[in-house]
Structure formats: structure tokens, C-alpha cells
Amino acid sequence: MRMDDAGAAEDAATTDVKARCLSWIDRNRDEAARLNDALFYFGEPSLEEYETAKLLCRVLSEAGFSVETGISGFPTAFLATIGEGAPVIALHAEYDGNPDNSQESGVTEPRPIVEGAPGHAEGHQANATVMVTAALAVAEAIKRGEVRGTLKVFGAPGEEIAASRPYFVRDGYFDDVDLALHNHIRGSFYTEVGQTQISAISAEFTFSGESAHAGLNPWDGRDALDAVVLMDMGLAQHREHMKPDMRAHRVITDGGQQPNVIPARAAVWWYFRGFSAADARALFEQACRIADGAALMTRTSVSVEIKSAVWPTRCNTVLADVLQANILSVGMPDWTEEEQAFARRLQEAAGVPAPGLDTAPKPMLGPDMPEPSSNDCGDISWVVPMGRFWFPGGVPHVRFHHWSGGAMLATSITHKGIVAGAKVLAGAICDCLADPALLNRVRTTFRAEIAGVEYAPLIPLQGTPRLGVHARLMERFRPEMAKHYRTELPRFR
Ligand SMILES: [Zn+2]
């Protein structure tokens, strides 16, 4: 056999493996839809994804993955592994919803499933469904011995509060990983290259003073809520001096209990964002000075807890090419006229442009066109080459974290987007497992891309993050939410 014949035979074998993976996904499209819908109706917010993680782990272990739960101290995190040896490919995706985002699917008006409850209005449940469906498809090829290597599937809880993945990196879970792939729902189908999101630090400032009767002797009180307000004013003044892509936003997590008791304790939870990790850190450090000033003015003391912190997200150029090629070969789902009409009605109801659903993939985005948002996968992208793509399970222009962002998430639009996304992810994994030269190009380009940047985690080097941010919320709402859980669960085969 001549060299080029050998190469052609290898290409044909890869094509066969990939074709079998994609047809496995087609055969299991109803199961993928069931998995998505089950996760959608769990509707669990950050770090409360107990039912979600349990179902994902069940599906993966039934397919022969060895599953480790609770990694890095997060009860709702997991690592599922199959195969052995090099290369080691990591998949990672989130599955959390948000507070006050409960929204029924298949309607074009605000209609909570449970009034006031958390829910999915962005589609992270579809992100996890794509990841797991693709992993199951490739696992079949690994089990048949058609491809060699290790697949590591990371369940990453709490993305909305940037919680888990920097801790996975810090704790060494990516030390032996050759490359990582991430997928996210959107109204469009595309990949991206270079820096695509910015850095963020999430920190809570707790002020402590002394209580007093607010009518009889307020002069004896040292008001912790005053300090929270003064910190807010300090940051408002500082905004003029922030770089245009910096962001600072907050919620008051403790503002006292009753007006006639001077609050001895008050707390405010801030996110600080900047283009680079250094920018986010500089803004955070300025906020700490402002907090110290607020404490000084109010004779209170302040303690600061970094809840989480993430590096910007960046995407490797070779992996972007691999993903884009797979996107073009899979193509957009065929939308029916009913799906197009539903999308237009939803867009009109949400007050956004109403062209309906995209009918073709978009060009690759970049290089270096970051959005002022963050994802806790950022840290991964500085320690291993990472590729990320967006799959068309949503409706274009409809906004995340708004009722309309949830209104399609258990319809055929999301179901078809999941199939397309899982095919791209499985196809890209097949390409990477089959081609050592491609892996070499991934490695060498990655080294050049991060040259001159020294990665150091923004999170604390010790300890685990505080859990239970939304525990009370779920204590209150879970019994009502549980009445809507799906009874028909997926059985992939
Ligand atoms: Zn997201």
C-alpha cells in the first residue's frame, strides 16, 4: 500500500466511525429530548442541581462510564470517564437554572411553571444534554475498539455563579487532559476563536457593627447597612474611572432585619469583570479599598470572601477550525413552518426583532471579540487547548434570563438543536481521537497563543467554596416544583 493509500484508508475509517456516531445520535434523538425535558423541569439553580446530576450520572454509568461524584467539594459535580490512555479529551458543561426564571415551555407569554420559583430561561439543561449525548455516542465507538483514548465528562455545577470549574483546574483534574471542548445553547450555530469572554471575580463583603434602638439611642449604633450603602456610592463614583469593558454589579444579601434595630450586620455580593484576569483583579482591589473606606466612615469592620473567580474564556484556533468544519457538515436543523411561526410569535411577544429561526450556520466569530460576560470554563482554556461552539437550540434575539428565554426549551426547536449540537461535538471528538497530527497542531498553536501569560488562579489556593447559596430557595419551592417532574426518563441504547 502506498503512503497516500494508507492515508486515504485511515480517512475512510475515521469517516465510518464518525458516521456511526452520528447515526447513533439520530437513533437516540427521542432519548436526548427526554433527558433535556427531565432536566428542564428539575429547574434547579446553582449548586442545587441534585436531581439533575443524579440523572446525568445514572445515564453515564449505565453506558459504562466510571463516575466520581462530588469532585472538588461540590456535591452536584461529577467526573465520568471511559476509555484509556492518550489522548485524553475533556468535555465540560453546566446544567443550572436561575432564581425567578420558572417558565413553561411551548407558550409565547410569561407563564411560570411555579410562580416565583427557579427555572431554566437560558438553556443550560440543553448544554448538559448535548455533552452527554455526544459522549454516549463516542463511548460506543470506544467500547467497540474503533477509536483509542480517554473521554472525561465533567459535570460543572453553578455556572451562573461562576462556581466550579476554576476549582477543578486548581485541584488538578485537567493535569492529564490534552484538550477540552465546551458547548452552549444559543439562537445560532457557530464557533469562535481567540478571547471570547471576560474575567470575573465574585465576592461578598460583610460589614459588622453594633445594634441599637433606632428611635431611642441611634447614636450608640454602628450601622453595617450604612457601610453597604457607602460602598455602593464609592463604586458609583469609581465608575467614571473604569475601563469601558469593566463591569461591577451587586445584590444586597443582608440589609438588616427590621427598621427599628440598627443593623449590626449587612452584606453585599458583587461581581467585578474585566477584559483580563489582571483587570478584574485591579477592579476588585479598588473595591476592597472602597469597602475599607466605608467601614472607616461607619466605625464598622469588613470581611471579604471571594466566592469564585474566573479567567477570560479563550478558544484555540485549530479546534475552532475542527468545530466549524463539523458545524458546516452537520448544518442547521430543518425547521418546520410551525416552528418558524412559533419563533416569530415568541420574538414579537419578547419585543425583539422577529425574523424567525436561523436557516444557516453563522461564520466563525473572532478572533478576539469578547462579550462582557464570563463563564467559569475560562480557567480551563488557559491550561489546556479549548474549543467551544454554540448550538441552535434557542430562538435568535430572545434574551437569556428572561421568561422568553425559557419558552422554547422543551419544544422541538431545542430538541432539534440538541441533535445538531451533539453531532458537532461527537464529530469533533472523532476527528481529534483519530488524527495525531491534528493533536500536535492543537498543542503547538495553544503554546503560541498563551505565550507570555502566566496562569495563576484568581480563586483562593486553599479551601472549598461556600455552598447553599440557593438552599433556602429550594427548600421553599422544591415540593411544588417536584409535582412537574417528568415521569418518562431517557433510556439510551
Ligand atoms: Zn450560560
What is this structure's SSE topology?
Layout: H1 3-27, H2 29-42, H3 50-62, E1 66-69, E2 78-84, E3 88-93, H4 124-143, E4 149-155, H5 165-170, E5 179-186, E6 190-191, E7 194-195, E8 199-208, H6 224-238, E9 247-254, E10 265-274, H7 277-298, E11 301-310, E12 314-315, H8 317-330, H9 337-350, H10 380-383, E13 386-392, H11 403-406, H12 412-434, H13 436-449, H14 471-482
Parallel strand pairs: 3-4, 3-5, 5-13
Antiparallel strand pairs: 1-2, 2-4, 6-13, 7-12, 8-10, 8-11, 9-10
Helix pairs in contact: 1-4, 1-12, 2-3, 2-4, 2-12, 4-12, 6-7, 8-12
The structure holds zinc ion.
Residues 122, 124, 159, 184 line the site of zinc ion.
Description of the molecule:
This protein is α+β, with helices and mostly antiparallel strands. It folds into 2 domains: 3-197 and 312-482, 3-Layer(aba) Sandwich (Aminopeptidase); 199-310, Alpha-Beta Plaits, CATH 3.30.70. It has 14 helices and 13 strands. The protein has helices at residues 3-27, 29-42, 50-62, 124-143, 165-170, 224-238, 277-298, 317-330, 337-350, 380-383, 403-406, 412-434, 436-449, 471-482; strands spanning 66-69, 78-84, 88-93, 149-155, 179-186, 190-191, 194-195, 199-208, 247-254, 265-274, 301-310, 314-315, 386-392. A 7-stranded mixed β-sheet has the order 1-2-4-3-5-13-6. Strands 9-10-8-11 form a 4-stranded antiparallel β-sheet. It is globular, with a radius of gyration of 24 Å. Zinc ion is lined by residues 122, 124, 159, 184. The site of zinc ion has 4 residues, from loops.
